[in-house]
Amino acid sequence: MEKKNISTASKDRKPYLSEPISGNGERFHVGHDQVDPLATQPWNGFVPECTLENHDDCKYFPAQTANIIVDGVYDKIRIKSNKWIEMACEEAKMSIEEEGGPFGAVIVQIDDDTNEVIRYWRNHNQVTSIGDPTAHAEVMTIRSACASLGVFNLAKIEKEQAKLPQQGKTSHCVIFSSAEPCPMCFSAVSWANIEHLYFSATRYDSAVQGVGFSDEAIYNELSKPYHQRKMKVYQCSAPNSLDAFNTWKVIPHIDY
């Protein structure tokens, strides 16, 4: 098989913003039954074919059959699976086929009056496919939903303001991510004002040998004072640093 040059493959690719999919009047429901910590985690038995050039290396990357759960980190939030989180995980697997990273996300828009699913968006990681380090699954799905609806606040979508129709006066969105979001994506979800986040694989799953995403390292870095971090960070005393803020305070503006 001819090896693809990722940097060349991504040169002319544009970000993919997904189109909304109708909810067909389905009532939104996600059970919040806690998972028994002593129960065996279900596994679908999927074991992908190893296609590494050095086939001997395959023995170092056995199929993982359960999420890595660190004591204290996920207490009181572990619940059973649902169709939306499994859809996000399906999107993550599809992402690899699109030359993206192994992450997917789904955003569901829900009518506040009827609790019906109005529509949903599914998207995936596009970092390597378009050459954008910020094109994570959650970010691309948020961009898709906001572009479709014409809003930046996904917590309260007014009927009169949204570009797409909805029955009730207001609606809101929730997000499902195939894996625990990195700090950037947590921030993106927060800036979109989404109040409910569901994820499946943990940051420790993302960091295992052969997967190698360093979200946990970033979390650790953010917990340190600036002067102790690996990235050299400096706060500059610029004389005009407050000009934009002072202007913002005294002109009409849109809060977000």
From TrEMBL:
Disordered: annotated span: 1-30
Ranges where the CMP/dCMP-type deaminase domain occurs: 79-226
Domain of life per record: Bacteria
Protein's UniProt name: Nucleoside deaminase
Entry GO MF terms: guanosine deaminase activity
Basic and acidic residues composition-biased segments: 1-16
InterPro entries, alphabetized: CMP_dCMP_dom (IPR002125), Cytidine_deaminase-like (IPR016193)
GO biological process: purine nucleoside catabolic process
